[in-house]
Amino acid sequence: PNKRHYVIETVGKHYAHAHHASDLDAARAVLEEAHPDYLPSFDAVLAARSLSLYNMFAMRRQHLDEYCQWLFPVLEEVWTRIPWDSYGPTQQRAIGYLGERLFNVWLRQRADLRVTHRPIHNTEREPVISKGVKMVGRKLGVGKAD
Q: pTM of the prediction?
């Protein structure tokens, strides 16, 4: 998908305001243990101000296999390090949210791949105003989703 651009904050800060920063810490720790060569890409993605979301992509089968062999063991280990019992329904989707960030990490690491971004068309109306109000609230410390 076309990248989402964060004007006010970085990808990492946005995640920390909308979710639990400790999820990112767990993901980084797993990468440090299993794939330390990916840490510069992880840190660069979190320091950036844009990324592709939605866990959507089209790629050759070989690349998909390589991506899945890298991603799923990382997410499975991260799963064991997150306190799920203290999370509400929205935050319990953390593995999906982390997967979005990790896809960008994998792409950055795989500089040999040619990447093309495409627009995503939402068939439902996006609540732009309410999303904006919630974002400002999170920035002011009013709260995260559940």
A: 0.87
